[in-house]
# Entry
Amino acid sequence: MTEQPIRREAVSDQLFTLLRDRILSGVFAAGAPLTAERDLAAEFSVNRHAVREAVKRLQQARLVEVSHGGRTKILDWRRTAGLDLAVQLASTRVPASHDLRRDVLEMRTSIGADAARLCAARCSREAATAIVTAASDYLGRGPDLAELGAADVAWWRLIVEGSGNIAYLLAFNTLVDGSLVAGEVPTEQRAAELLDVEGHMRLAALIASRDEHGAERAARSLLTRSVPVMPVAPDYEGGPT
# Structure
């Protein structure tokens, strides 16, 4: 590898990013030892303290494992890393982030569908009324997609809060603040979903009537409208032989 000096500000952060990208792209293979601290310091022209800080962050992200003897091993991030890595992948140009926007929208669909099911089963009468009222207000809004998008987020927040699932609520917060790039999806791509007023009204009514499975199906149908269609692999185009 060639020498690659880096800027002096936030050195450990920059080094972490460079090493993380090497792990995610396979330059550093899973199971292999991480380049020795002194060699990394020499390659990037940084002090060893910066290297230690970067390696500590890699360990926190579960990308490497540091043994008691000081040996650092590259982990298989597909098996060890958590959702926090997805936030980082949003700005990482490596093969692993192939189509993260589609992946996030698929996750959004799954979480939303189950949150709607749980909301129908668990939410209070007041919460159900608020969801129906918000859907009725949605009905009266104009065709402006940005305005509908904001109203849609507020409506879904009521549903996710009504599910009583804190993990879903935290994931929802991450999705809507743009950290997982769902917020960067062009509004036009979500037009079919946002303009489906009937779908919003139907889902609200199903939640209010405590129809868990109906709410789940309706939510999945509504949210799937924004998910890009995955091309069928060539081996399956003709169906089973």
User: Anything to note?
Assistant: Residues 232-241 have pLDDT under 50 and may be disordered. Residues 151 and 234 are 40 Å apart (CA to CA). The beta strands are 64-66, 72-74. The chain has twelve helices and two strands.
